[in-house]
């Protein structure tokens, strides 16, 4: 059974089936001076279906994953490279739901060796209800120029989660994070001694990788549980992340893990309260600015308005400021990106002018934040239901993925059409 990530797929009654033989370019609906382009429309074949966003590897080079599609139907790793005025997709790996893994729910991290690193929610050698418990993998792109239609990379599974007391299971929206020594960090939403998830570390050792568990989440009324997103690191090597549930107010947490003398100390930076009807706040992934302030979003499951927040350290504690509250309860914002000027960018999985999601910018001027709608998806050849984190390149171009849309004659299932797109907004 294919498990779909946290996104709402509504019935799409499209009167016109648009095709897209080349690059689609259109002006953003806000009328601002940026251009929206579709870089690739997925086919559901070797390139995959429903991308989880992309990662910038350099000028004109993007890597990403799809959580389904591919020859075996369990997702892919792909490369998008600029060729003149267009972009070319190259499938690097197709997951088979074996020891190699299945269903990556997050994009990849580019390592110092040029390989890409990621996690799969399922697959691997563990036994979780008859299926795998997830993996951490490396894909090394082909060393030479591809001379055939498809040149796959070489995949290596660095770790298969085993769902034991000293291991986790089901890494969900987790792109691994490197420290300066080349160690990898991430989380699993379940597993560990208390079944509430773990933070894991993989260290290179003897040509392989050795796993350790710096922290096991407890769901004890203080610690959080179900860390669905990965972690980020500050220059000192401290780790920061979120949990969807738990904490003293039971609405999820923002936490810090600090290394000291071979051990790790947890500090809960913020406890989110439950909503008025008892739902968690559902904090997403974090981003940090050069001053050490943290930014993120909460989606609050549609029963309360989503928002973008900032956490600022102050006299040994942290103060939360709400930068913007969305008026539409169906926003479901993903993790956000920050540019060098301090502007924040993100997407809402639903809502917007056509109901298929939209891309936004938050601009800070004198302590006041202004929201700008950069683009509204139509659910047609431009895509619909943006998924994953938006990312910026060094020129300020913004990239992301959509779960549906594109070539509307493909992937006609789940009451939706199209296999998804990768898009770019150019300022």
What would you say this structure looks like, in words?
The protein has strands at residues 24-27, 35-41, 49-58, 61-68, 76-83, 86-94, 109-110, 116-120, 135-140, 154-160, 168-169, 177-178, 184-188, 190-191, 198-205, 208-216, 224-225, 232-233, 239-243, 245-246, 250-260, 263-273, 287-288, 294-298, 307-314, 317-325, 337-338, 344-348, 358-365, 368-376, 384-392, 398-404, 421-426. The strands form nine sheets. A five-stranded antiparallel sheet has the order 1-2-33-32-31, with no helix packed on it. Strands 3-4-5-6 form a four-stranded antiparallel sheet, with no helix packed on it. It has a four-stranded antiparallel sheet with strand order 7-8-9-10, with no helix packed on it. It has 427 residues and is an all-beta fold.
